[in-house]
Specification:
Layout lengths: L8 E4 H6 L1 H10 L4 E4 L6 E3 L2 H7 L7 E5 L6 E5 L4 E5 L2 H21 L1 H4 L3 H14 L4 H9 L12
Parallel strand pairs: 1-2
Antiparallel strand pairs: 2-3, 4-5, 5-6
Helix pairs in contact: 4-6
Length: 157
């Protein structure tokens, strides 16, 4: 499928439209990414969700738990995305952060053509992409909170 100089197949967009089912099977079922080229534009690559998830697996968001001793509650902060949320309990803070991350990922992807001009936003892209691949809240929680151990007696406040 690839020409002698290519390592993965490149298919013109017009041909990709006509052969999408076959190309999809090659990329997803057979694990063979396909480069799709539109004249004058950047190329796109068709690959499976699992392959993409593997590529961004190392971009783990680190959630910091900050107990608020004076006001009570907890602040959760993600350095890689520069976002945080507060809750009166650790569970409430997690729920608030989950909602904030969902909103941030949607906004980031919708505004990427703007954000790609800022170095700090470009650095966030692999983290945003990794989180965007979550199929539901349970998977997103696992991506965000699995490595996080709650502080002792966190829920007793």
């Amino acid at each position: 499928m690839a020409s002698p100089g290519e390592m993965i197949a490149t298919v013109p967009l017009s041909e990709a439209r006509a052969r999408f089912s076959t190309l999809y099977d090659a990329a997803v079922d057979a694990g063979q990414p396909v480069r799709i080229h539109r004249r004058g534009d950047e190329d796109a690559v068709l690959l499976s969700r699992d392959q993409l998830r593997d590529l961004v697996a190392m971009y783990i968001s680190h959630v910091h738990v900050i107990p608020e001793e004076v006001t009570g509650g907890y602040t959760l902060w993600i350095d890689e995305l520069n976002i945080g949320e507060h809750g009166v309990t650790l569970s409430a803070a997690r729920d608030a952060l989950l909602a904030a991350v969902r909103a941030y990922v949607r906004d980031y992807l919708e505004r990427y053509t703007f954000y790609r001009h800022f170095r700090d936003k470009v650095a966030q892209y692999p983290y945003v992409l990794r989180l965007s691949l979550a199929q539901d809240d349970a998977e997103l929680k696992g991506l965000l909170f699995a490595p996080m151990a709650p502080p002792a007696q966190a829920e007793q406040r």
